[in-house]
Amino acid sequence: MEVRRCNFDAVWPYLLASLKNADFISLDLELSGLGSRLATVARNIEDRYTALREAARTRSILSLGLAFFKKIGKSETKRRIKFQCQVFNILSLCAEPFIVEPDALEFLARHSFDFNKLIGTGVRYYPSTASKESPLQSLVTELFSCCAPLILHNGFVDLAFLYHHFYSPLPDSFGEFCNALADLFPWDSPLCDTKYLAENHTRMTASFLEYVFRKWLFQRNSLFFSQGDNVREAIASRWYLTVLFDDSTSMIKTLRQACEKVDCRLPENFPDHVIPCDLREQVCEQFSVGERCLFLFKGCLKVQRSEPWLLP
C-alpha cells in the first residue's frame, strides 16, 4: 500500500496494528543521495561514520518501505511455515532544503519512482534538528519501541538516516551512535543486515537487494535463503516458507486506489524452466556486479534485469 499525505490518517490504524502484531519487520529507505561514495566506504569506521553523518544531515529520505511479518501457521506434515505480510510504502517529503544527487535521481527513475507524486502528495516531515513534529516521527518512535527484530539491507546507512531525520541528531562519534542504538535495540530485539550476510557469509558476487532476493545460490548450511532456494526446498519436501499478503485494506473504498500488486513469481516450472543458451552473453556485466550500468545512457543494449541471475 502506498501511503501519502491524503490517506495517512486513514492508513495509520492499520499501520500501527501491523507494527504492534509483527513477529519481525523489514525496512528499506530511498534517499536523495549518499554523498562521496569513497568516504562512505572508507576502511576506517570513524571516517565512514563522519561521512555518513554529513550525508544524513544534508540529504533526505524520499520514501520508507515497511513490511510487517506475522507467523500464522506451521505444518509438520507439509513442512511449511506460513507468514502473513502487510507492506506499506510511505512517500516522505522533507520540509527543509536538502541536497539531491543526479545518481540518486537516475537510480530512482529507472525503478519507476514517481517524483511528481512525491512532490504533490508526500507526507511532510521536519528533521529532528527542527522543533516541529511530524506524523513520521511518531511512527519511528513506535518502530524503535517495539520488540520485533528489524531486518535491513545496508542497515548502517538506513539506521543513520532514520535516527537523524525522525529521532534525534546523530552523535559526534561512531561509538556514541552504537551506544544509542544499543539502547534502542536490546539483545532481545535484534537487528539483521541482509547485505552484510550476502557479502560476508555467502560471498555473493553482488549484494544489492533485488539480486540477493532473486539469486539462486543454494547452500545447505547457509544463514541466507533466497527465493530460488525456498522453491527448491519445497520441491524436495524439506522445510520452506510461504508468505500471504494481507489485502484486507484493499477492500476499503477510501484505500483501494493506494493498493498495488506486484508479481515477483519465479519462471514457470522453475528450476527446470527453459533458459536461452545465449542468455549469459546477453546480461550486462556492469549491471550484474553493481546494479547500475555505467554505459546504460551511452547505448548499452544488454539485459538490465535480475531474472537472468536465476541461472544456476
- The class by helix and strand makeup works out as alpha/beta
Number of strands: 8
Instruction: Tell me the Rg in angstroms.
Output: 20 Å
Shape: globular
Element-level helix/strand string: EHEHHEEHHEHEHHEHHHEHH
CATH superfamily of the largest domain: Ribonuclease H-like superfamily/Ribonuclease H
Number of separate helices: 13
How would a textbook summarize the main sheet? 8 strands, mixed
The share of residues in extended strands comes to 15-25%
Look up the CATH topology of the largest domain: Nucleotidyltransferase, domain 5
**Do you know the CATH architecture of the largest domain?**
2-Layer Sandwich
User: Unreliable segments (pLDDT under 50, ≥5 consecutive)?
Assistant: 308-312
Q: How widely separated are the two ends?
A: 33 Å
By CATH reckoning, the class of the largest domain would read Alpha Beta
